[in-house]
Design goal:
220 residues, 7 helices, 78% helix, globular, mainly alpha
């Protein structure tokens, strides 16, 4: 029993990681409150969780705010672009759904097809959101290249993308429908768990640009 609670035991290391995730979730929430800073906050979160995955975690607070400052300009710009696109997509869904219900015949079919295309665009947006801020935490590149590579990597590594989505969806369902205080884990623990999947993928892309990721934004 004593071995289970020793610092070197797997149990203690898992609990330590969960504690780190909860603390990072608090930092992420506080720094995301203005909404406009959510991108910088998310990039900073992944910067720290990537370090934890590689057993290079030190002063979490200092690392988080250093990454927040260093990535603020690019991450905020990317977030504002994604936010604008989300507003456009949301408006399109609302209008097309209203038109679909108002019309009949060919016009209703056209609206349904348009709605389906917008939903596909929403899925692409979700992939962008899942990958672009971890990319900012991992590599340096132009904004256009970040957006392009986030989509290409996310669609190429579909298993990783689905797993990251499931982690976040499971946490959201658990908080909303099962036990609300689990919100203390929130995005911090989700990002930490996701980092074990994302880091090897992004590391492979960054170290093998001829196959996955290039400085000019092309990927394969």
């Amino acid at each position: 029993m004593a071995r289970i609670f020793s610092y070197e035991s797997k149990f203690s290391q898992i609990m330590l990681r969960l504690t780190h995730g909860c603390y990072l979730n608090l930092l992420w929430l506080v720094c995301s409150l203005p909404i406009v800073t959510l991108g910088a906050s998310t990039a900073a979160l992944y910067t720290v969780t990537f370090k934890i995955v590689n057993d290079r975690d030190g002063d979490l607070t200092a690392q988080f705010f250093r990454a927040f400052r260093d990535n603020f300009r690019q991450a905020t710009t990317l977030w504002l672009i994604l936010l604008l696109v989300a507003a456009v997509l949301g408006t399109d869904i609302y209008i097309l759904n209203k038109l679909r219900m108002a019309f009949t015949g060919p016009l209703a079919i056209a609206c349904t097809i348009g709605l389906a295309l917008v939903i596909v665009a929403c899925l692409a947006w979700a992939v962008e959101f899942m990958y672009v801020f971890p990319l900012v935490a991992m590599v340096r590149n132009t904004n256009a290249a970040m957006l392009k590579n986030a989509l290409l990597i996310g669609t190429h590594y579909l298993f990783c993308t689905i797993c990251v989505f499931v982690i976040h969806a499971a946490m959201a369902i658990a908080i909303i429908a099962v036990f609300t205080p689990l919100a203390v884990m929130g995005e911090g623990v989700c990002a930490l768990l996701s980092s074990y999947l994302l880091y090897p993928v992004l590391r492979a892309c960054a170290t093998d640009p001829s196959r996955h990721l290039s400085e000019d934004g092309s990927a394969s």
